[in-house]
Amino acid sequence: MTSKPDVKAFFDKRTFSVQYVVSDPATKKCAIIDPVLDFDEKSGATATINADRMLDHVDREGLTIEWILDTHPHADHFSAARYLKERTGARTAIGEKVVEVQKLWKDFYHWPDFPADGSQWDKLFAEGEAFRLGDMDAKVLFSPGHTLASVTYVIGDAAFVHDTLFMPDSGTARCDFPGGSAARLWDSIQQILALPDHTRIFVGHDYQPNGREPRWESTVAEQKATNTHMAKCRTKEDYVTVREARDATLPMPKLILHALQVNMNGGRLPAPEANGKRYLKFPLDVLEGAAWE
User: Fold this and answer.
1) Which of 94, 105, 163, 241 could be a cystine partner for 173, CB 3.0 to 4.6 Å?
2) Distance CA 138, CA 281 (A)
3) In total, how many domains does the chain have?
């Protein structure tokens, strides 16, 4: 029984997102993690370019999809989870705290009848819950801070840490979204860094500092030694000060109000209206942090 899954990354340069096909070499069973549904905010067009690339890889490698996993409701891209489920029939899953995000954001969108119960996914994972990918052991770590609902998937020797840690030269994730907390993110990062030093860390974004090529894989040991935020913040108090000061300079992601209404609904686009067209709902004056200059 292997403890080292095969990991194939797919980088989306439009959103700087990293998507993964993670497979058990012995059984050829796989999971897709954080798939992107393509969206162009200028034209309103949607596409399945990223998701279809991953499906092509699955077909070429002779893999069978067991899971479609999101680490949290994303604020910077649409999730392709629903599209992939419709194409493959695989089970969708997310952390059970997604219901807290749904309860918060349904009010922002004024959706009093929205079912904030997580029923949009086939499975809601509890903190510490174990599951299987083929013959491989996997577990779920609750990793709040960036969002209320964030989780880390540990599959064999690989940890998919979404927006907690970035590559060491990029530091850690922002915590200024509704429900975010720098103090909670510090605790989540400590739990991840308590994994064995050889554990492979796979991040959810790479913003290519100084124009370098995209990167997405490190180890726990490398993160502990060289992560730009963790290396200079020895206490939670230091980290909260640094993180909150940095977040105060950041504009909101350009797609946050577009994406959350889709992603808290399991990747479902709005239902077509009488003319057959779909329409996003865009609330005004609900978020702080406008970049006027």
Assistant:
1) 163
2) 37
3) 1
CA dist 156 → 33, 144, 160, 201, 216 (Å): 15, 22, 11, 12, 18
The SS3 of residue 191 is helix
Residue in 6, 71, 17 with CA at minimum distance from that of residue 49: 17
Please tell me the predicted confidence (pLDDT) of residue 1: 42
Q: Which residue has the tokens 């020895």?
A: 234
Q: Is residue 1 part of a domain?
A: no
Q: Give how far Cα 187 sits from Cα of 146, 164, 168, 248, 282, Å.
A: 11, 10, 18, 21, 33
Rg over CA atoms, the chain:
18
Cα(78)–Cα(75) distance, integer angstroms:
8
pTM, to two decimals: 0.96
pLDDT at 260: 97
So what's the pLDDT on residue 183? 97
Domain enclosing residue 118, as ranges: 6-252
Q: How far apart are CA 257 and CA 262, in angstroms?
A: 9
Q: In what order do the strands lie in the sheet with 45-47?
A: 45-47, 36-40, 78-79
